[in-house]
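Practice problem 4.
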């Protein structure tokens, strides 16, 4: 279904995110027939360039990151909708020209695909030069601040120019198909919700493991680390969707109110429940410190922690979170590990068994539910756990494998004016309020992250975090 007609301006239109994600995503939506024919995409950045120059860049980006077009004519028609205006985010240059490009009778969205230092300047100029209308939206990328104080300052700054209903703070994890599916599974079935609490759930594991290192983003990353880069936003959002109470409706503020309650119910994490790691060198690469060109860096490229949501539903059920770079495999999954059956009628030799619901975000999006059955054969009542496997690609056919990229979904939601999958200002602040004391704590202690081998599951101490509780992490595979 096509969305309403729109003009989308991408500040930072020549940048990495625009080339890798936003522009290829828009092209795929165009191919899917969702972009109305008169819709326009205008790249805006400091570099002087004309429309043709930008179109060449977009064509190259789509060839490289977009998987190409089924019909080459499609890319040409898409590019006809693409233009460019050079603007100076901190000065007057280009704003009048940009305004003249925009139409009056359609949705106007401004995507700030730039560092947070420019958010305020852009917002101010959109107002000052009369580009922002009552229905315009701005989209802001992470990092949304570096800590609570800077996030508050950003929220205050944006609020001078835009209403909260016009601000779309992106966390691309919320655009992932399986993440949305989490809500469908929890609230669309009767099977799970009655068991979704401390009485039946032993613990929850959230793992986002990456095989890549910090790549070319060493400067940004060394100043952030895994806690700011991943936990404060992506893992926090996953935790919220798992832990929240059922919202009354699938509507922006219903959902976001419930997520906020979860964040506010999180206990401070004790220092001995946090493990930080930093990857070392191997024969293929020189290690984290060489990647970020800081031989004394104490920034973590891995973090694991044990969190508690102190409310009636979750009291006593730990949430173990871990994320890291240069690990054994690229796997993101949430595992809900249920308690053992209260009594085994099969005796001690049948062993201990419990159900695990694993939701795989990537790769092979899908879910498995481990159920205990009798091991086939005449050998008596021996039990074995087998997965009920629902890989989307198998269960839903080609459509299941054809999962749209998170950015495609989210940009279209901006045009539709649906904020459900975007973070509200108070949510972001609450998340920083939880992570700040952990970061301040290790900075004050002069904590040095534990080294770990590239291709491993992270530092040994992370395994111990669960062993001490008589539990173990699921394999990263
Ligand atoms: C980004 C982080 O937000 O998410 C990156 O800044 C990380 O460091 C990326 O690699 C992971 O996203 P995905 O979609 O590849 O899991």
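Answer key:
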């Amino acid at each position: 279904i096509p969305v309403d007609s729109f003009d989308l301006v991408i500040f930072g239109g020549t940048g990495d995110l625009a080339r890798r994600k936003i522009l290829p995503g828009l092209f795929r939506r165009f191919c899917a027939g969702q972009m109305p024919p008169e819709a326009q995409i205008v790249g805006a950045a400091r570099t002087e360039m004309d429309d043709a120059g930008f179109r060449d860049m977009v064509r190259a980006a789509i060839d490289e990151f977009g998987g190409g077009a089924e019909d080459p004519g499609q890319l040409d028609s898409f590019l006809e909708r693409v233009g460019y205006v050079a603007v100076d985010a901190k000065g007057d240059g280009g704003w009048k020209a940009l305004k003249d490009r925009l139409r009056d009778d359609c949705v106007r969205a401004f995507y700030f695909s730039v560092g947070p230092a420019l958010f305020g300047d852009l917002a101010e100029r959109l107002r000052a030069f009369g580009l922002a209308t009552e229905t315009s939206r701005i989209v802001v990328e992470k990092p949304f601040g570096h800590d609570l104080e800077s996030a508050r300052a950003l929220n205050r700054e944006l609020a001078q120019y835009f209403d909260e209903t016009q601000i779309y703070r992106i966390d691309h994890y919320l655009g992932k198909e399986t993440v949305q599916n989490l809500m469908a599974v929890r609230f669309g079935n009767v099977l799970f919700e009655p068991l979704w609490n401390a009485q039946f759930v032993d613990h929850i594991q959230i793992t986002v493991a990456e095989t890549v290192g910090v790549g070319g983003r060493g400067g940004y990353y060394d100043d952030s680390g895994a806690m700011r880069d991943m936990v404060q936003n992506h893992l926090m959002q996953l935790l919220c969707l798992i832990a929240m109470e059922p919202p009354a409706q699938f509507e922006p503020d219903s959902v976001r109110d419930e997520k906020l309650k979860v964040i506010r119910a999180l206990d401070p994490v004790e220092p001995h429940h946090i493990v930080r790691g930093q990857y070392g060198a191997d024969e293929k690469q020189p290690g984290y410190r060489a990647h970020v060109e800081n031989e004394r860096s104490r920034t973590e490229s891995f973090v694991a922690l044990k969190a508690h949501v102190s409310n009636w539903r979750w009291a006593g059920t730990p949430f173990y979170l871990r994320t890291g770079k240069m690990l054994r495999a690229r796997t993101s999954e949430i595992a809900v590990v249920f308690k053992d059956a209260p009594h085994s009628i099969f005796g001690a030799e049948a062993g201990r068994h419990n159900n695990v619901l694993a939701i795989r975000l990537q790769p092979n999006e899908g879910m498995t539910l481990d159920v205990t059955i009798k091991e086939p054969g005449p050998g008596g009542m021996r039990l074995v756990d087998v997965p009920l496997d629902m890989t989307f690609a198998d269960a839903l056919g080609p459509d299941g494998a054809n999962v749209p990229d998170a950015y495609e979904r989210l940009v279209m939601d901006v045009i539709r004016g649906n904020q459900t999958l975007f973070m509200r200002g108070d949510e972001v602040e609450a998340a920083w309020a939880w992570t700040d004391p952990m970061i301040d704590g290790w900075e004050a202690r002069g904590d040095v992250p534990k080294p770990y081998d590239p291709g491993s599951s992270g530092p040994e101490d992370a395994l111990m975090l669960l062993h001490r509780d008589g539990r173990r992490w699921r394999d990263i595979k």
